[in-house]
Input
Amino acid sequence: MGDGEQVVSFRIGDEILAVGVDTVYEIVRMREVTEVPQVPSYVHGVINLRGHIIPVINLRNRLGLEEVEETRSTRIIVVELGGESIGMVVDAVDEVVTVPTDAISPPSPVLISIDTDFVRGIARLEDRLIILLDVLKVTQFGAEGDGEEKPEALPAGDAAAAPAIEGGDEA
Amino acid sequence: MTDGFDMSEYLDVFLQEADDQLLTLEENMVKLEQEDAPQDVLQAIFRAAHTLKGASASMGFTQLAEVTHILENVLDALRNEQIKTSTDLVDATFKALDCMRALKEEAAQGVQGTVPDEVIQDTLTSLKTILAESQGDRMEAQEAGGGPVGMELAAHDMETISEAVERGYNVFQVHIKLKEGCPLKGIRAALIVNDMNDHGEVVKTAPPSEDLEEERFDHEFVALTVTQSTETEIMESVKKLAEIDEVSVEAVKADEVVAAQDKADDEAAEAADAAEAAVAAAAEEAGDPDVKPAAAAADAPAQQAQGGPSRQVATVRVNVEQLDNLMNYVAELVIDRTMLEQIRASLAQQRGTQDDIVARLEESVSGIRRRTTELQEEIMKARLLPIANVFNRFPRMVRDLAKKAGKEIDFQVSGGETELDRSVLEFIADPLIHILRNAVDHGIEPPDVREEAGKPRKGAVDLNARHEENHIVIEVTDDGRGIDPEKVKAAAIRRGQLTEEVAARMSRREVYDLIFAPGTSTADQITDVSGRGVGMDIVKTNIERLNGQIDIQSQVGVGTTMAVRLPLTLAIIQALMVSSRQRIYAIPLSAVEETERRPRSDVDTVRGRETITVRDKVIPLIDLSGALSYSREVPPPEESDQLYIVVVSVGEKLAGLIVDRLVGEQEVVIKSLGKFIGEIHGISGATILGDGTVALIVDVGALLNRVVDEIQQPALA
Output
């Protein structure tokens, strides 16, 4: 076996994507997600993972694709980054494959339909293309000006500071 | 028996213990100032200093060991009545304590050299000056102990040696000569013994180890060590240490050793050895980073050796993380239990409740229900700690503050045994420090002023804690000048926070609330303690963040009481569960005043804001879901004629939260939303419900603060 990396491949629409096996903490069935206010729309919300509350990203939304209804094959891939677990909702999980290093090329917008900002590379296997996702970028919150900061910059809860009077949006 | 001795593994334990010892020192040093400090106080401080010295020397923190060592000498002289307590002495010991704390911090951070050398030297000089008084006596004592070096072996030493030889270990007699005039030879000796212990085990030293520690030897000593290392290895290793003049290593044959039988000596040595062995064993156990005997364990053997009663210590120290994990597991268990209950319910539907399996399932489900509840309660209890952990440092602080401010204060602490969750404990120290500073600085008058007012020169400040239902109440009472509402108002008017007309209408309570507004201070003059107009607003914010309240009672000329009321735990709260736009929320019950069902026609609009009148008060209404602003809007349920309103309060502020439905009251375990989500305005955390889904916990304070409460308090707007 030559040089290569093991990845978990999954589907979003017709595309096959993958993340490194070492970042994947676990894969769970879709479950009820509790929405959280004041977060970008790609943050689906939070779930309970064995007593821990972890955020879940809607990967379709994050990658600029149309959202779809969840199905029986919808899964949440839980990745671990810097000690924090983050879930990503995907249409279906395929398998663990080994991608030879020499099969990986830089991302090209011609080949794929998703935002190449989030792509680390493209692996050409015999029968298919696998998009290697840049998990770090995908899970970066409102960074590098993707135009989706927290929707409404609310005043910080500075308790005793003179109460802001601009409110009234709850009426 | 390896060459590399991994200190980091022991560092945590060392630091925890050092904290304990420093606390004991601090607690008792304050008492030193009171004349005729009882012998047990002296013993307690001496023991703490002694233990800390040993521990820091063995960890290689030589500066810390050095300072502690001299302090120990001072305490020893004090204990033996060679010197008397004086303000100078107490000041010097406190200086040493500060220095030791800074050095300990250095150890914790893994850095060196942050504590300036001058500080250490200055500390040592102060201590030595005190010590100089008793120097004469000490010299005599040293001479008496510094006899010729020789090695006498008791029967049990022989056994150890022959057993070691049988098992193929080497036994060496290591003769060490320190450089003449070497400073801190006690610590040097301890370091050398430690070094040898890295290679094996030092069975015995001559003079005995306590004499070495107390520097009752000239500059030579002999250590008998059992090891797998070779002569050269031991030699090389020891030679690397500083201040050594000569080392010789000599192999010992078991049959060559002659046991000297000196009965009287033996008994004393035996007791001391037993104590040492027990301490060593305790220390070894303590080496396990997770579980270690409580500090009391180290004291117990020493007491035994002194003929004191033997004491069984049935406590262990547990990592907070482990307790948190246990809490999580229990929460998981609760969820599993709920699932089991659901299964039982559907099975009962299929088969009827009379069915044998259904009945048996019911039985075990209810068993699990009881157990999980008990388990949860026990773990909650395990997280409780006496508030003395925080209170202990205050006597010293108040003493220093009073001294600085030129005031005389009698500070009394009670209720230190009151327990609360460690999560709360962590956060209350700061607010209490502010409150105490205020009492000392603003509350208590200078002695002369007090005398003129016909009060005792010494002001009284009392700190008290007690339980009230599910809360802990901490009160700071002073018999000082009290808060003058007129002064507070005048100050607020000066700053333009308030108009005179509004001020005239304000209730006393509302005036006190002004104290918590940023920028308020009634102190006529600014001191470096407090009085810069910062502090009380922070106090209030911090306490409210803990779901607590603060209340002031004061009478001009008589004194002030500040009462802080806090929940016992931050981990679990009672919550009112509500539903709004199909989302479930938990509202902390501590913030809920009442719930109301009102017809929509009761809603008034005042200056563009919806309000409602509850008990003759006009309060603003907040639509819960709307106020939180979600990226995905859910339409409200079909316009109903009735509104559910949860009246919530924070301090004096009231508001009505509009919800769709009340779900019920429940105990919820608070969890963080994590770093990725970060701070969400109006949400303080999340909790896991019985069905395994997540509900958000409403931060009532944040929501309320955002609301324009011009209706209620135009003064502050």
Observations:
- The radius of gyration of chain B is 33 Å.
- Chain B has a mean pLDDT of 77.
